[in-house]
Fold this protein.
Amino acid sequence: MEIGDASSADRRALGEQWMSIDRRTFLNRSAATGAVVALGGAAGAVGPAGTAQAEPGTPAGAAHRHPRRASFRVLGTTDVHGHVFNWDYFTDKEYDDAAHNDVGLAKIATLVEQARAEKGRHRTLLIDAGDIIQGTQLSYYYARVDPITGGNGKRPPKHPMALAMNHMRYDAAALGNHEFNYGIPVLRAFQEQCDFPLLAANALDATTLKPAFPPYVVKRIKVPGGPDVKVGILGLTNPGIAIWDKNNVQGKLTFPGLVEQAKVYVPKLRALGCDVVVCTDHSGLDGGTSYGDALPYPENASSLVAEQVPGIDAILVGHTHKEVASRTVVNAETGKPVVLSEPLMWGMRLSVFDFELELRHGRWQVLSVTAEVRNANTVAEDPHVARLVRKEHQAVVAYVNQVIGTCKEAMSAAEAPYRDTPVIDFINTVQAATVKAALAGTAYRDLPVLSQAACFSRTAAIPAGQVSLRDVAGLYVYENTLDARVLTGAQLKDYLEWSARYYVQTPAGTPVDLTKITNADNTPDYNYDVVSGLGYDIDIAKPAGSRITNLTFQGKPLDPAASFVLAVNNYRANGGGNFPHVAAARSIWSSSEEIRNTIIAWVKENKVIDPAAFASVDWRLTRDGVPVL
Ligand SMILES: [Zn+2]
């Protein structure tokens, strides 16, 4: 595969060449057959092997000039996040949710085989839109406990996601932002193990500005009696990686925008003779940008790519964990439709794109593209995939069920979004203690250490009695690491005000529905921070931006000029959630150890979790000063 770059003059020339061919093709089609015949003939005109069939209404004498038809299918997954089995490693049970979704590649493999059988496997491609190697204890185990990079004195294991995806014969996958969570060496080891390319046209080497991963792959669909259909698959990842995984990528990789890089590579794919161009984007359809203007490129750009980059036929969308069966966006330059589909997450859905083509002047032209999603909960798991990964699954189940300590009282995160709960205090206690210990003997040893934490999972719970690793791991589901930043009292007030945007403004005197006062403007739970070590009220009757009242430190009003150390996760510290001041604040310490592991190590060392030792109510919701709860 060629991954070099064409000069901008070349690109302009290629772009013009293809624009003119497009226009000529369009005129020919309109003149020769009429748009109605061309479009109306698309359905059902394709034989089982994709060979040409006569079109109704074509003059008999022109039989040798009948346009040939072909069709093929692209299947797509996204945001699988380490799920092979329909299993929840935190609850040690089969996965379930309110909608009774099922998860994992083992079930997706069954849907894939069905879709291949319907279409003919030689006329089907399988792609993914990224976020593959992070998200479950299964994927964590092979990144950190028995890592695929080796180092345990034996041959490095194969990653279960590589085992499953190789068996399923994926043709390509885009890189997701979470691929970078364990650092570049783990990602490179995973890449080595995959029989298919990991694509990212907008992940560049920071020094050479050359692609650090293949930008695209070209696949051929065989058509008996006709030329192959050449399908270009372009992979695009998320510019937010520069913020979210700054510690892992800074100075090594740089991430330009999706639109910018698609404008470089789509013309290149057309120049290589691709009849069809499909993008796989780790970028949502048209949601907001969670990092504000900290980067010049939007986070969720797939609709923009469709609209602004000529020459794309379809886009597999990911990153936002949404289900969108089919969305059509018209390209502003060509007026042609681009079909997008996003198959939810975790292997809950499979997108199915169907392409119909027609041979004109020796070249395949796309007549139509349709998309749908299929639900993994309608099928059984594929026994081959299940058998292939069973041993790894069992090793991880044993690992997560090991007892690491006891807890004196049950703790739950269920009410953490609106009440100061012991389980969040626990995370903050461990984080503050870790930073405090790290700063001993430094110039910062006398500064007070505060700590931030958010509710990552409302179903997280630590039982009374024996505590297993999975109970503690479930408290902290992301691979965040810990950082220590110096902030002033005034900056902390701004920080808390930003966090309090999470609440829906609710006038005093009206009934309070606890299920409706949080997540204002779709703010996710993970972007609502509690700061421990301070006392404060959040007045949700007031507009966002002026809600923090009675802000105290050690019982006295917080001094705006005083300095504090904030124990803060790397996601937040690097600008995730666009919280004020923290990204620019001085970092005085950081660790590459995951916070999850730090908490697990704390339990192993202390043996007993006693909520009475750390739980206290330091913040509350009010309305015009009157407590809500
Ligand atoms: Zn994801």
User: Anything to note?
Assistant: The two ends are 62 Å apart (CA to CA). Residues 1-64 have pLDDT under 50 and may be disordered.
